[in-house]
């Protein structure tokens, strides 16, 4: 993948900040469709829990749950991500990141001990 400068016609539009790269748009579309399909499955399984986990209002949950496959593909084709990180608190996000790091280090240490022993 090649790096593009801000404002480069293959990357970001300086005027709008909108992504115009065909590859990036395809990836956004793929993420959006995966998110919509996951949201629909979660809403079918346990609506209240899904709304809480996804941060959806009842109205938005109704719309997402009622999308046909064709409508979901059309909505997913937006140039904007439909999902976002809900970890606005730096402390929470850092804690989760560190937890994963510690687990990886512990696993590496266990593997090293297993090779020695």
Automatic annotation (TrEMBL):
User: Is Transcription regulation set as a keyword in this record?
Assistant: yes
In the UniProt record, the signal sequence range is: none
What PROSITE patterns is this protein classified in? PROKAR_LIPOPROTEIN (PS51257)
Origin: domain of life: Bacteria
Q: Name one GO cellular component term.
A: cytoplasm
Per UniProt, subcellular location reads as: Cytoplasm
Q: Which InterPro entries match?
A: Flagellar_FlhD, FlhD_sf
Biological process (GO) annotations held by this record are:
bacterial-type flagellum assembly; positive regulation of DNA-templated transcription; regulation of bacterial-type flagellum assembly
Gene3D superfamilies the UniProt entry points to = Flagellar transcriptional activator FlhD (1.10.4000.10)
Alphabetically, the GO molecular function entries are: DNA binding
UniProt keyword list: Activator, Bacterial flagellum biogenesis, Cytoplasm, Disulfide bond, DNA-binding, Transcription, Transcription regulation
Fill in the domain comment: The C-terminal region contains a putative helix-turn-helix (HTH) motif, suggesting that this region may bind DNA.
Which family, according to UniProt?
Belongs to the FlhD family.
- Self-association or partners: how does it assemble? Homodimer; disulfide-linked. Forms a heterohexamer composed of two FlhC and four FlhD subunits. Each FlhC binds a FlhD dimer, forming a heterotrimer, and a hexamer assembles by dimerization of two heterotrimers.
Which function does this protein serve? Functions in complex with FlhC as a master transcriptional regulator that regulates transcription of several flagellar and non-flagellar operons by binding to their promoter region. Activates expression of class 2 flagellar genes, including fliA, which is a flagellum-specific sigma factor that turns on the class 3 genes. Also regulates genes whose products function in a variety of physiological pathways.
This protein is called: Flagellar transcriptional regulator FlhD
Q: What is the lineage of its organism?
A: Bacteria, Pseudomonadati, Pseudomonadota, Betaproteobacteria, Burkholderiales
Q: Gene symbol?
A: flhD
């Amino acid at each position: 993948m090649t790096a593009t400068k801000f404002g480069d016609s293959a990357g970001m539009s300086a005027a709008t900040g909108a992504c115009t790269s065909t590859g990036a748009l395809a990836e956004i579309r793929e993420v959006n469709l995966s998110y919509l399909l996951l949201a629909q499955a979660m809403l079918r399984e346990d609506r209240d829990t899904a709304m809480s986990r996804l941060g959806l209002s009842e109205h938005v949950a109704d719309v997402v749950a009622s999308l046909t496959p064709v409508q979901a593909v059309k909505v997913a084709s937006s140039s904007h991500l439909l999902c976002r990180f809900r970890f606005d608190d730096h402390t929470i996000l850092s804690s989760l990141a560190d937890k994963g790091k510690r687990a990886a280090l512990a696993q590496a240490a266990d593997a090293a001990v297993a090779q020695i022993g």
